[in-house]
């Protein structure tokens, strides 16, 4: 167990490494060594892999008895949600949503906040939260069409001409495009001083994007997160916001 925690910490320390999409490994009769596709991609082996259940690279889940919202939880430390098939002590396996004690299952259970769409104080449409949100609380999942990086580059050139893009990098291979298929949170505007933050989590073998409160958010407050523009795009798109800050 301690070895798994050390592996997680090493991967966190080497956070500059690219994040690759997970594909289950399948090499019958062979252990998960340097030739294993999971290890090559710096991913843990998951419950979907065909390797042995005692594989040293397989993620074992957590044994927490709390809410799994600190780095004491191996799942939280590894930037992944608790797995209901592996994490039973924390309550992630509870079928009844009202009885779930684990707070690290919000994306997979869809336990977000009620959001309202209205004209923004910054530009175009905006998203406003109906209820209170505390710091680090889950607000919504950023949904959309999953496309390849090459397709995202092609679409991005078109979107740049309209100065409007809903592309969000998921990992090294795929991008989420919420232009045609998405949910309300895509209308959250950019800010250099946001009240929300986006986090890519591993959820039951899939990378998914969660939007979380960066601080306490009052009911009716407009939601913003950092789009992580490059310096050129910031000059182009953030001018309105900077003007508002000076007024």
Descriptive overview:
It is built from seven helices and ten strands. The protein is α+β, with helices and mostly antiparallel strands. The strands form four sheets. A three-stranded antiparallel sheet has the order 3-9-8. Strands 4-6-5 form a three-stranded antiparallel sheet. A two-stranded antiparallel ribbon has the order 1-2. The longest helix has 14 residues. It starts with a helix and ends with a helix. The C terminus is likely disordered.
In total, how many beta strands? 10
Spell out the helices and strands N to C: HHHHEEEEHEEEEEEHH
What share of the residues does DSSP label as strand, in percent? 15-25%
Report the helical percentage: 10-25%
Q: In this structure, how is the largest beta sheet organized?
A: 3 strands, antiparallel
Strand order of the largest sheet: 3-9-8
Distance between the termini: 55 Å
Structural class by secondary-structure content: alpha+beta
The number of helices is 7
Shape: flat
What is the CA-atom radius of gyration, in angstroms? 20 Å
Low-confidence stretches: 231-247
The overall average pLDDT, rounded, is 84
In short:
This protein is of the alpha+beta class and 247 residues long.
Helix-strand blueprint:
Blueprint: H1 2-13, H2 37-40, H3 74-77, H4 106-109, E1 115-119, E2 125-129, E3 138-141, E4 144-148, H5 149-162, E5 167-169, E6 174-182, E7 189-190, E8 196-203, E9 206-213, E10 224-225, H6 231-237, H7 239-246
């Amino acid at each position: 167990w301690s070895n798994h925690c050390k592996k997680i910490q090493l991967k966190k320390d080497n956070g500059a490494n690219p994040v690759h999409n997970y594909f289950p490994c399948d090499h019958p009769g062979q252990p998960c060594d340097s030739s294993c596709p999971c290890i090559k991609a710096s991913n843990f082996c998951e419950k979907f892999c065909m390797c042995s259940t005692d594989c040293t690279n397989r993620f074992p889940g957590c044994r927490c008895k709390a809410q799994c919202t600190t780095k004491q939880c191996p799942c939280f430390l590894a930037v992944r949600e608790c797995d209901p098939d592996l994490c039973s002590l924390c309550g992630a396996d509870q079928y009844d949503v009202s009885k779930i004690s684990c707070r690290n299952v919000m994306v997979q259970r869809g336990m977000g906040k009620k959001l309202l769409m209205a004209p923004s104080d910054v530009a175009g449409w905006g998203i406003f939260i109906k209820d209170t949100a505390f710091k680090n609380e889950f607000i919504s999942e950023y949904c959309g069409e999953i496309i390849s990086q090459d397709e995202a580059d092609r679409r991005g050139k078109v979107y740049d001409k309209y100065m409007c893009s809903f592309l969000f990098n998921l990992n090294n291979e795929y991008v989420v495009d919420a232009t045609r298929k998405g949910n309300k949170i895509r209308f959250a505007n950019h800010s250099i001083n946001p009240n929300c933050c986006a986090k890519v989590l591993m959820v039951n073998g899939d990378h998914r994007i969660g939007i979380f409160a960066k601080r306490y958010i009052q009911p009716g407050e407009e939601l913003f997160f950092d789009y992580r523009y490059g310096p050129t795009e910031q000059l182009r798109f953030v001018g309105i916001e900077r003007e508002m800050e000076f007024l």
